[in-house]
Amino acid sequence: EEDANKIKPEYVKSFLHVSKLMPSTWIVIRIDGCHFHRFSDVHEFEKPNDARALNLMNSCAVSVLEEFKDIVFSYGVSDEYSFVLKKESQLYQRRSSEIVSAVVSLFSSMYTMKWKEFFPQKELKHPPYFDGRAVCYPTSEILLDYLAWRQVDCHINNQYNTCFWMLVKSGKSKSEAQNYLKGTQAQEKHELLTRLSGIIDYYNTLPLMFRQGSSVFWDKQEEEEIANQGKDAVGKCYKVVVDLCNIIEKSFWEAHPEILG
Ligand code: ATP
Ligand code: ATP
Ligand code: MG
Ligand code: MG
Ligand code: MG
Ligand code: MG
Ligand code: MG
């Protein structure tokens, strides 16, 4: 009798703790590749930045936005992507574990499915996987601070990695390069790059995608494109775009008021 009670659904379900994300806040899901240092070695990514790998990440992000319509904006760099869900989103009744797991799982599947498109000559040697977390931001100001933080991080890491790999390619060992860069300020790194490359302001000649990361969002389609597709041109036509934007500057958000609504 007692044993039978234990398998009643109410009893089993009573252990379930449903964690819901705070209502009326921006939800950010940040995913990050697991052990991508190794993954990028195994698959011989170009260092410090493999454009194919970044374009693959961007393409996966486009698929995520197309699937989860409540995601209004996303920003990616290296092996990470941040997805912003609109404040009112009721996706999975805002249950954190469902939202995070669905985004991470779709992203990982797309990465595997699209691999050949971006690395036609390279076999996928082991399955890529990602972890994810959800954080709520109560105001759009704080959300923009979060995104600015990621873009600043992109710049700092990229400047370091560019120096590191230039030292390595000039003949230093990895630990020598690391010691050499220990404690250097941004200005010193800038000068080091100019000296090693022989190009003034070398850093700023690098592709914008490496220096600024990538943004993926729903953007208004050009009227011309809408006309070409034979739809009526009453403005309400959006598509997911990949763009290289400065999201720290307020001007980007002022130019795209529909993103944050
Ligand atoms: P963890 O599992 O803790 O996230 P990780 O090895 O993935 O560890 P990260 O801090 O996430 O470490 O850094 C990702 C690493 O993946 C980078 O340091 C870099 O070596 C590599 N990487 C990711 N994307 C690229 C790319 N486009 N080009 C070259 N290397 C890349
Ligand atoms: P949700 O996204 O809400 O989970 P769902 O379509 O995945 O919706 P579930 O309640 O999870 O619905 O049910 C899974 C459905 O997938 C089943 O109803 C069945 O139609 C189908 N399905 C799953 N596994 C099998 C299988 N091995 N053979 C046949 N059908 C299957
Ligand atoms: Mg990680
Ligand atoms: Mg990682
Ligand atoms: Mg990372
Ligand atoms: Mg389900
Ligand atoms: Mg199901």
UniProtKB/TrEMBL annotation:
The residues covered by the Thg1 C-terminal domain are: 142-229
Q: Name a GO CC annotation attached to this entry.
A: nucleoplasm
Q: Which UniProt keywords apply?
A: GTP-binding, Magnesium, Metal-binding, Nucleotide-binding, Nucleotidyltransferase, Nucleus, Transferase, tRNA processing
- Which GO MF term does the entry hold, naming one? GTP binding
| Biological processes annotated in GO | tRNA modification
Ubl conjugation in keyword set: no
The compartments listed are: Nucleus, Nucleoplasm
Tell me where it mainly resides: nucleus
Segments forming domain tRNAHis guanylyltransferase catalytic = 10-138
**UniProt function note:** Adds a GMP to the 5'-end of tRNA(His) after transcription and RNase P cleavage.
User: Know the name of this protein?
Assistant: tRNA(His) guanylyltransferase
Top-level taxonomy = Eukaryota, Viridiplantae, Streptophyta, Embryophyta, Tracheophyta
Q: Which residues of the full protein are shown?
A: 264 to 524 of 569
